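So, read this over?
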Amino acid sequence: MVTSTTLPTVPLAHDVGGTGPLLLAVHGMTEDRHFWDRVPLATHFRTVRVDLRGHGDSPRVAPYDPLTLAGDVHTLVRDLGLDERPLVVGHSYGAVVATAYAARFPVRGVVNVDQALDVSPLPTRTARAVRGPGVEEFLASAFARMYGQLDPAVAADLGARRKVRQDVLLGAWAPLLDLDPGELTALMERVMAIRQPTPYLSVHGLPVADGYPAWLRGRIAGAVVESAPVATHYPHLADPAWFVGRLIAFDDAHSR
């Protein structure tokens, strides 16, 4: 598992749209920037949507740990000449990358979409499945459980467009597969090591443990944990208008 903050970055496929405050949109594992298409972010924000390395049209080059991926995103922002501190919005594994970005670079705030950060090593059965030849079927079943109340037509579209690249998945999940609990905790502390008070909103469509809000505040000062109005791993796609409105309210509240 490589977590160097000095590794060379790779150029990311991306698009830029809209005007207004700068927002970086970071997709989840097996997805790409077009999984944000249903969310009208550019109606209010100058939005940079990226394909993380190993995803979409970006280079498929290891490593895939969150600190390295955050470095890629920051290099893109710098190369685009964007000096404004961004609001970084990440879904699922993209939320881990968004959190790592805030630990390394200046941000206006972070919005974590349905990704708990109190992670544990993967159970043996799950580890065997993601390493084996049936990984696509395993993930299809796992995502089917996480779609929850998401419109079935939207869920079917996500499933049809999802690309499972086993080497990328294993690289990103290497900490969950290879590290013992103490090592994994140390890595996540690095990911969450946001050095200054930073507005942090964690929006969950799926349930989190009762003690999770306090746990998160103990690691990211002032973090707010909220439940989304629809029970799904994809609350931003279940109600895009609500989601954009929540982003605007969060950003406005901390930009005064």
